[in-house]
Design brief:
The complex is a heterodimer of chains A (97) and B (258). With 97 residues, chain A is mostly helical. Chain A is built from 4 helices and no strands. In chain A, helix 1 packs across helix 4. Chain B has one domain: Ribosomal Protein L22, Chain A. In chain B, 28% of the residues lie in helices and 22% in strands. Chain B has 6 helices and 10 strands. In chain B, the strands form 3 sheets. In chain B, strands 4-5-1-10 form a 4-stranded mixed β-sheet, covered by helices on one side. The relative contact order of chain B is 0.19. The C terminus of chain B is likely disordered. Classes of the chains: A mainly alpha (97), B alpha+beta (258).
């Protein structure tokens, strides 16, 4: 599943996700959010409302409905796992944007 | 003196302000090893402080209803009734005979902390106005709720969407389900107060008077007609107690910190 195309896109996706994260939270410090930190619970401590807003922004930007496609939401664990999921699904769906 | 656990359709709501809470060694010692580990995992000190303040507040509130010291309270997580995963409701593990084991729900948003206590399953949610567009959340609503907000514009719509969220999340927490399930599968917006979901028996919903810039709601397992919310601890804000106060139950702690 981890195609070269998806792997190549992941750093760009990560950068965009950082911007979306900082925008929906209103917390510019999250532009420096470490990739492997937990997004929810601990780590950067996202709450569920902000998390849902983030998923909506991801859907608008990348055309990937994370909540519908990843029922356990494992991909939401960290920025890295989210970027990998989004890169893989958006690559499968064709070029984003 | 032990405070009686609310009975019937009654819920006690306690508000705290983590921004005005000083946490010293005595307060942090009230947390469990697990809570201290979780606290250590936050990237930003402000998030860590809010988590610690919320959990100290929760323990102090529950101490008042149980007579058990905050540190000696223990919790376990029930499995999620929907998926069996580990994200279900945290419950108090009664150590010793108690007249009534309180059900509780904890919510925090920014510096604001809400603890709801009842004699049966209860869910609480508080949300600070995120200060940016929340319109996209309307796409997750039950059609009946979506129809209620469809005619609204501007601030009225913005407030209604956040008001919907706190009721829906309170209902999910009352059922013990993770927030990712079924957010839009049941209607929650007023004028109805009885909600048919998400647990089989449904729940009763009420708005909780909240500090400026916040909205909050509680859900109590049905049947609970005439649901009544009592503000048991102070609302945060300019009129709140002195810095460091963790609600009316912690006068001693506040004195110690001054």
């Amino acid at each position: 599943m981890n195609t070269p195309a998806a792997a190549g896109r992941a750093p760009d996706v990560t950068r965009e996700l950082r911007h979306l994260l900082a925008a929906v939270t209103g917390r510019p410090e999250l532009l420096a959010c470490p990739e492997e930190e937990a997004l929810f619970g601990t780590g950067v401590g996202l709450d569920s409302l902000t998390g849902t807003l983030l998923l909506r922004r991801i859907q608008d930007r990348f055309g990937v409905d994370v909540a519908a496609e990843d029922l356990n939401l494992d991909s939401l664990a960290t920025l890295a796992s989210l970027a990998e999921f989004v890169a893989r699904r958006s690559a499968a769906a064709g070029p984003a944007g | 003196m032990i405070r009686p656990v609310p009975s019937g359709p009654q819920v006690d709501a306690w508000w705290f302000d983590a921004g005005r809470t000083t946490l010293g060694p005595a307060e942090l010692a009230e947390l469990s090893a697990g809570e201290r580990d979780r606290a250590a995992a936050f990237v930003f000190a402000a998030d860590r402080h809010r988590y610690q303040a919320a959990h100290v507040a929760l323990r102090r509130v529950l101490a008042r209803y149980t007579g058990i010291s905050p540190h000696d309270l223990s919790f376990r997580r029930e499995p999620c009734p929907r998926c069996g995963g580990p994200s279900g409701r945290p419950v108090l593990t009664a150590a010793g005979p108690l007249a009534a084991v309180p059900w509780f729900s904890l919510s925090h948003t920014g510096d604001v902390v809400l603890v709801a206590v009842a004699g049966r399953p209860v869910g609480a949610d508080a949300e600070r106005d995120p200060g940016r567009c929340v319109c996209s959340l309307a796409g997750s609503m039950h059609p009946a709720d979506a129809a209620r907000v469809a005619g609204l514009t501007g601030q009225a719509r913005h407030r209604a969407v956040i008001g919907w969220w706190v009721r829906a999340e309170a209902a999910l927490k009352c059922a013990g389900e993770g927030i990712t399930h079924r957010l839009g599968e049941f209607p929650v917006l007023p004028p109805a107060t009885a909600c048919p979901g998400p647990a089989p028996g449904g729940c009763e919903l009420a708005t909780v008077p909240a500090p400026p810039g916040c909205q909050a709601a509680v859900a109590l397992a049905a049947p609970a007609p005439g649901l009544r919310v009592t503000i048991a601890g102070p609302l945060p804000g300019p009129a709140a107690g002195p810095p460091g106060t963790l609600g009316e139950g912690s006068e001693r702690a506040a004195r110690r910190q001054r």
